[in-house]
Structures are given as C-alpha cells and as structure tokens.
Recover the amino acids of this structure.
C-alpha cells in the first residue's frame, strides 16, 4: 500500500517537473536559441582560420556545410514545437550547454560547472542559517510557551510582526552600511579576502566573511520560527499527558524539554527539512547584496546580464529541489501518520 | 464589526492605514516639489538641489555650527568687478562673497551664466589669507534661452568666489547667479541625483497602497471563488482547478517577469497582472479545505433538499461563510505583495516610470548609498515598507477577532512566508 503510494507520488512529482521545465523552455527558447546560434558562429569563425590553403569559394562552401550540420545537431532546423521539445530534453538531462557571458573562475563556461561551483557556498551559508534558526527558535519558542502572554511571548509576537514585513535585503544593506563602512568591523561582501590567506587563517577569514550575512539571516528568521514552535508547543501543553506529568511532580523544565518537545518533534523536523530544501536554492537578493557567490548570486547576475543558459540551469535546479522536498514531505507525512491516507489528500 | 473595534490592534492598524491613505491621497499638496511625480527621473527638474545631503534636522540649531550657514541660497552677481576687452572678446570677472561666518560651508554650488555661445569659464576661490585656488575651468557651451550651468564643490569657509569668463565681442552680459547648495535639505535629505527623499517617500505611498490592496483583494477573491468552485462542483472541475493550482503554486514568478520585461517595458501593471495569475494560490488551499467542510454541513443539505441550484448554494451559503476569513487573509497578504514589488525593483525589473519605495532602494543600492553611508536614503523607504507591513498585520489581527472570537490574540494561521522572488 505504502510502496504503491510512494511510486505514484514520485512519478507524479517527476511529471510536474517535466511540465515546469517545458514551460521554462518555451519561455526562454528564443533567447536561448540566439545564444546557441552566436556560439555556433563563433566556432565557425575559429574553424575558418584553420582552412588556409583553400579558395574563398571552397571555404564558404565548407563553412555553410558545417553550419547546416551544427544547426541540425542543435535541432535548430526544425519547427518551433520541436525546438522547444529538444530544449526541454536538454534541460531535463542536465545538458545546459555553455553560458553566454558568465564564467567559473577557471574559465569554464559550462553551466553545470558554474552551478556546481556555487552550490557548496550556498549550502554553507543557508544550511548553517537553518540549523541556528531552528535551535534558537526551539529554545525561544519553548520558553515563550512556558508563560503564554508573558514578556518573552509578547515580545516574540511583536518582533515577528515587524520582521515579517521587513525586506531581508534592506536589513542586509543597513548591516553592511553600519558594520562594514561606518564601523569597519566586517567585510562588505564576498567570501574571502583578497589576497586569500592560507592554512588555518583561511578558515578564520571565511568565517569572518560568513558572519555578517549569517547574522542578518538568523535575526530575520528566528522570530517566525520561535513563534511557530511556541504555537505547536502550546497546543501540546494542553494535552492530558502533560497534566499527568506535572501531577507526578516532574519539574517544569523536564516537562517542557522532555515530554512536550518530544511530541512536537515531527512538526519541528518538518519545518527544518522544508527550510533546508528551500535554502539550497539560495536567496537571490540577499546573496546579491552580500556578494556571497552562491546560487542566489548566480541567479542575480544571470538575471541582470540576461545569461539565459545559466538562468535555465539555475531555475530547473531550483525547481527540482523544491519538488524533491515536497515529495519527501508528503511521503514522510504518510509514513508518520497513516491516518492521512484514510482522510485523502494531506 | 463591533468586535473588530474592540481589538486595540485592529483599531491601531486602521488608524495607521487612514493616516497613510490621507497622506498618500493629498501627496500633491504635501510635497515640497510640486510635479515631482512626473519629473522623478528628470535631471533638470532637480538641478538646483544639492546632491546627497542629509536631512535638515541633522544640523539644527541644537547642533554646533547652526542651521544658518548650511541653509544655502542664491546670490545675484550685480555689476561685474572687471570688464576688459581683449582682442575681440570681453573678459568679465564677478566676485561673490561667501561671508566670514566660520560656520560650515555649503557642500557645492552652481553658477548660472545668462549668456550664449561657447564660453571659457574659470571659477576660483580666494581664502581669507589671500591665497587663490582654482575650483574649475571649463569651456561651457551655452544655448540661447537657458542659462549655462557650472557646478563645483570643495568650498571652504570664508572664501571669495571669483568667476571669470570670456564672451565674444564687446557685449555686456547679464549678471551671473550663484546658487549655493545647502549642506542639508528637506525633511529626509536628498539622494545622489539631487532628488528630495521626503517627496519620493510621500509619492511612493499611493503605489504601495494601491498595488498592495488591489492585488491582494483580487488574488484572494480569485482564490476563494476557485476554491468554492472546486469544492462545490467536484468531479473534473475540482480536478482541473487542483492541477492548475499545483502548477502555479510551484512555478516561480520570476522567469515570467524576466521574459515579460524583455518584451514590454516593466510596469506596475504587468507586475499586477502576473501577481494576479500567481498569487491566488496562497489563499486557495485553506479556503478549499474549509469549503469542503462547509459543503457537508447540515444547512447545505437543507438547501439542497428545498431544490436550490448549485450556483445559488455556492454564493448564498458557502461564500458568506468564508468571507471573514478571506478578509483576514487579504490584510495579511498585502505586506507580501509590497515586499515582492520591492524585491522585483531591487533586481532592476521594476517600473521606472513611477516612484516606488523599492525603486528608491534600487537606486540607492546601484548608486553606492551603502558605501557612502547615505543612511537617510536607505532607511526611510525600508521603514515605510515595514510600517505598511505592520499596519496590515494589525488589521489582520483585528479581523481575526471577528473571524475567530474564541482565541483572542491568535492571528490567522497563515504560514509566515518570506517572499523570495
């Protein structure tokens, strides 16, 4: 029963991915084709230099022949529907081709190499954010739930309201202004000093660069998480087993951290996992502002320079991750709580 | 309704909204530069203001130095000090005394030359010690009608500004005017392009409110109607709407926006249209779940038994039951939309023909406000965005009291989604 659902859900997610990639391909097909055409012409011009001992007519014929062959190879001689189809197939098989302008530091223009380079950096920044936010959020949320409507609880719900409407990138701009330019404590952006130090100093340097964006993101994220956890815990605190535990004379701290936290764990884990999955895609504007060279920054630059191959690559990668996260979540729900299956759609 | 007014948060939010709407509505009367809305990107409209200076209150009488010297102003040239004819052209020299106040000097100054043709101009400054230093030397090409403009900076205290220029022939030119740029300007200072930030903030209110309220109303209503349609009609309608929902809820809006702005010039309207297409999904799922529940209620069955049509039941029974919740969701989704617009603007895909807070922050980011620590340029737009967010959150809290009287102070259970464009 569960295995059948698993297969069904996975196939369905894959289908959704195909539909979305097809949409991206249709949207960006025109610009992407222009890029490929320009790259073909560039290659042909390089080829032409090699043929030195032939007559101009012969050279023209060779070039024309090669152009036809290359266009055919990239399916550019077919009708629009087929071109979109082949672009989707390329994207689905992670064959993103070469970028228009952007380069990996070693000069590689393959989109896969560029993404592969940026990915670990985003993971470092945002994963550490999610971990810190979850831990701090759990602690704050538990203490807030201990005394509902107490000072901590009230201030958390106030700050949540404020930070919810706060643009994270604006806060980033302010942080950079105050802590990099007004008080030069932290670097204004990037991931490493120039020139980069070696050895253990490099690690310290990296952490130093990491701190400002991390503090900004944690400051913004922690309140909402604390508030959510407070709500989850509060509804758990009304359960009979908590009353029973208190009646047995167990200390309030142990009731909170032992009993309540354990039963709230699935919800918290879901929150963290979902945060983790969406964080791998990065945050475009925050990374752009802090100059953190991850996926979000890649996206930021690709949008501004209209580098469609990179854009398509990042987009489909992001979509893929999102879908995997959603499917996993659905599967986990069904696994943890079989009653959902009986009720129908989760 | 009475319950809404019993909630302090709701009343406070509503009062803030009323104030904001009033200021936004009477913006043309309140701004110190009338017509600035149409001329926001017009360099000539702002040419007489000082660039990138802090607000007036940073140099009030309570701060040493005083406001008098930093106020700026105009000085007419009067008669020339010197007028010599040299080989077919006339050399004219004017002097402007900046006074020996010893206070802070103007940031920059502009010299207006009411002459015509190509004029070689030298502007220098003579200090108290008699030492003269050159400020600028240029060949100014002046066309008829408009006076020539020469801007210069690095002025020091107690100097004499000497303007010297040649005009062809033995004509007498009209006196030049020296416009002293103030060291401070307006309630919120100016940006690098000399624009008054207070004016921009006030002009931005209407777009933020209009866009936020209109888009959130339309998207939530669309979401509710589609959810009711799916729940009440069932069958293939239900199926199709749910598949469309899945597509749009997973699809990021940004690629569409990029392609759209490549074809058309990015505008608020294209953003609103796309937001309508995508954001209805935010209200859909919870409303759908509620509508499914309401569908099974006894009074719906009763309505069915007296032979009412499905459409009648949907609009007469189901919709009214969902509307209060819908209003709370609307209020809660306004900040997200304003934030999203600002995010789009920061990426450079915003509407550049109107003044929006996001657009101002975009300019600030691109033109180095962060590096130059122009805090008066960065703080106000962001504060306005968050203030608008807070006021709608307060209103949502008040509406929640109406919708959910049993749990005071518990806001609508919407996931706190930070918009990530």
């Amino acid at each position: 029963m569960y295995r059948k659902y698993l297969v069904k859900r996975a196939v369905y997610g894959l289908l959704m991915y195909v539909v979305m990639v097809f949409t991206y391909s249709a949207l960006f097909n025109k610009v992407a084709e222009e890029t490929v055409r320009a790259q073909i012409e560039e290659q042909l011009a390089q080829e032409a230099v090699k043929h030195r001992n032939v007559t101009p007519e012969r050279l023209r014929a060779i070039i024309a022949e090669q152009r036809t062959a290359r266009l055919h190879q990239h399916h550019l001689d077919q009708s629009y529907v087929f071109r979109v189809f082949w672009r989707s197939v390329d994207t689905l098989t992670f064959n993103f081709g070469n970028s228009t302008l952007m380069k990996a530091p070693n000069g590689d223009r393959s989109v896969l190499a560029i993404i592969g380079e940026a990915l670990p950096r985003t993971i470092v920044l945002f994963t550490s954010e999610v971990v810190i936010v979850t831990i701090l959020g759990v602690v704050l949320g538990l203490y807030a739930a201990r005394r509902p409507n107490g000072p901590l609880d009230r201030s958390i719900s106030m700050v949540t309201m404020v930070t919810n409407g706060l643009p994270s990138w604006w806060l980033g701009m302010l942080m950079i202004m105050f802590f990099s330019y007004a008080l030069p404590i932290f670097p204004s952006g990037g991931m490493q000093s120039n020139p980069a130090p070696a050895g253990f100093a490099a690690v310290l340097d990296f952490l130093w660069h990491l701190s400002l964006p991390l503090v900004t993101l944690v400051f913004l994220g922690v309140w909402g998480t604390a508030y959510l956890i407070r709500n989850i815990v509060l509804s758990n605190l009304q359960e009979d087993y908590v009353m029973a535990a208190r009646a047995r004379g167990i200390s309030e701290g142990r009731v909170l951290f032992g009993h309540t936290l354990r039963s709230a764990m699935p919800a918290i884990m879901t929150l963290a996992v979902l945060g983790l999955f969406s964080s791998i895609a990065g945050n475009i504007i925050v990374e752009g502002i802090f100059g953190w060279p991850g996926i979000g920054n890649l996206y930021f630059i690709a949008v501004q320079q209209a580098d469609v191959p990179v854009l398509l690559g990042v987009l489909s990668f992001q979509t893929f991750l999102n879908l995997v996260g959603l499917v996993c979540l659905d599967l986990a729900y069904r696994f943890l709580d079989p009653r959902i299956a009986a009720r129908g759609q989760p | 309704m009475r319950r809404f007014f019993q909630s302090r948060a709701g009343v406070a939010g509503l009062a803030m909204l009323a104030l904001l709407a009033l200021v936004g509505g009477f913006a043309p009367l309140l701004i110190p530069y009338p017509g600035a809305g149409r001329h926001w990107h017009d360099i000539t409209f702002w040419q007489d203001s000082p660039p990138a200076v802090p607000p007036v209150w940073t140099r009030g009488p309570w701060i040493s130095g005083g406001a008098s010297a930093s106020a700026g102003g105009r000085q007419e040239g009067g008669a020339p000090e010197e007028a010599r004819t040299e080989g077919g052209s006339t050399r004219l020299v004017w002097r402007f005394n900046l006074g020996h106040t010893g206070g802070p000097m103007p940031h920059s100054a502009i010299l207006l030359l009411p002459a015509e043709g190509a004029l070689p101009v030298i502007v220098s400054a003579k200090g108290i010690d008699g030492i003269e230093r050159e400020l600028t030397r240029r060949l100014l090409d002046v066309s008829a009608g408009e006076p020539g403009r020469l801007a210069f900076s690095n002025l020091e205290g107690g100097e004499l500004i000497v303007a010297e220029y040649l005009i062809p022939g033995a004509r007498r030119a009209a006196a030049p005017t020296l416009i002293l740029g103030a060291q401070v300007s307006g309630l919120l200072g100016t940006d690098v392009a000399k624009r008054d930030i207070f004016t921009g903030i006030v002009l931005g209110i209407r777009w933020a409110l209009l866009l936020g309220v209109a888009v959130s109303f339309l998207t939530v209503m669309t979401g509710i109607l589609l959810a009711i349609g799916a729940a009440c009609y069932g069958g293939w309608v239900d199926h199709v709407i749910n598949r469309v929902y899945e597509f749009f809820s997973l699809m990021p809006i940004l690629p569409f926006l990029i392609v759209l702005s490549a074809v058309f010039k990015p505008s608020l309207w294209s953003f609103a249209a796309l937001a309508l297409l995508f954001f209805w999904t935010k209200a859909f799922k919870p409303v759908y779940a509620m509508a499914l529940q309401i569908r099974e209620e006894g009074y719906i069955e009763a309505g069915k038994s007296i032979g009412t049509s499905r459409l009648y039941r949907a609009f007469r029974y189901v919709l009214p039951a969902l509307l209060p919740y819908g209003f709370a969701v609307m209020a809660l989704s306004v900040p997200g939309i304003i934030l999203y617009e600002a995010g789009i603007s920061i990426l450079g895909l915003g509407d550049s023909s109107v003044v929006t807070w996001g657009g101002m922050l975009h300019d600030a980011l691109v033109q180095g406000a962060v590096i130059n620590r122009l805090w008066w340029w960065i703080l106000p737009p962001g504060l306005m965005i968050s203030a608008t967010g807070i006021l709608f959150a307060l209103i949502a809290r008040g509406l929640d009291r109406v919708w959910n009287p049993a749990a005071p102070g518990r806001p609508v259970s919407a996931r706190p989604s930070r918009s990530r464009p």
